[in-house]
Amino acid sequence: MKAETFNPEFTVATRYWHRIDADRVQCDLCPRFCKLREGQRGLCFIRGNQNGEIVLTSYGRSSGFCVDPIEKKPLNHFLPGTPVFSFGTAGCNLACKFCQNWDISKSREIDTLADYASPQQIAATAAELGCRSIAFTYNDPVIFHEYAIDCAKACHARDIKTVAVTAGYVCPEPRAEFYQHMDAANVDLKAFTDDFYVHLTGSHLQPVLDTLVYLQHETDVWVETTTLLIPGKNDSPEEISAMTQWVVENLGPDVPMHFTAFHPDYKMLDIAPTPGQTLTRSRQIALDNGVRYAYTGNVHDKSGESTYCHQCGELLIGRDWYVLSDWKLDAEGNCSNCGTPCAGVFEARAGEWGAKRLPVQMKYR
């Protein structure tokens, strides 16, 4: 790693680091624990050593802004049908060979951070566009910890909720601070073996499981999980069964699980796309193991995308891609047929945003 000078306009001090010797400091934000000399960046790209301290080098800079359907995060039980103001930055603290957003998350180019917006601008723009929430997405928000928290504070002041789309790879102390300011999270549970995590993501499974347990039992954050099923890598019935049993036993039956289709990308162009039957089989394994809400994704599957009452089987929320086709929840979020509560964060009526995607150009300053 070469030494460089970071742009002071976008650089802010951080808390989670310590000095390890006269020449190096260690970043303590995530379990990667990057040890950096002066002017070096961590693997995440946007945190680096400046004057013997770890700084965030991209405060206020984004790879782009867009209004999405909340179901695209994916979150099926958090304000269904509503628009979410989405953005991310360059970089990532994992090294997934199958990354589907690699042009953003694996970017090592400052030019990727094309847009500037202060937390106050983001909150104001989200409010003007009628968004009920903002999502830190496209890359993992734990690496832009300070910027994400300031954005969350500005949004909460306007009654706009916050969503983290994350791999869950973060240390306990910064994790606790970060999730004080989040209302919902979709956590990538990328597989259920450490071998997969080590060889295909450059990380480990246990910190992710720790994050999931922490979120479910020590916070009020609404949690859903996503697993991208890669043929021959993490899609065996045995692994899906072990994963879903762990979720029910450690997180409870009400945590929605999304099984999504892989397509060849980044460094895994030689792997075939995920067959539809693999997604359907995995969803059924989850249901059989006691998961009450299991979904398929990245494919057109109205049955697998929709929400059903776990008590009577009534179709509660019909989905056709990102368009809600049915809504059979009462004002309290209960099944209109039998009265059983549906787990989630619901408003009295479904949103009507649909499948629209609206790119947003922020005005500099």
Structure overview:
By secondary structure, this protein is of the alpha/beta class. It folds into 2 domains: 8-56, no CATH class; 61-359, Aldolase class I (TIM Barrel). Helix content is 24%, strand content 23%. It has helices spanning 102-105, 119-128, 145-156, 172-179, 194-201, 206-218, 237-250, 276-288, 302-305, and strands at 12-13, 17-19, 24-27, 35-37, 47-50, 53-56, 61-62, 64-69, 83-88, 115-116, 133-136, 161-166, 184-188, 222-229, 257-261, 294-297, 307-308, 315-320, 323-327, 358-360. Strands 16-15-14-13-12-11-9-8-20 form a 9-stranded mixed beta sheet. A 3-stranded antiparallel beta sheet has the order 1-6-5, with no helix packed on it. The protein has a 3-stranded antiparallel beta sheet with strand order 2-3-4, with no helix packed on it. Strand 5 (47-50) and strand 6 (53-56) form a beta hairpin. Helix 2 packs across helix 3 (145-156) and helix 7 packs parallel to helix 8 (276-288). The radius of gyration is 20 Å and the shape is globular.
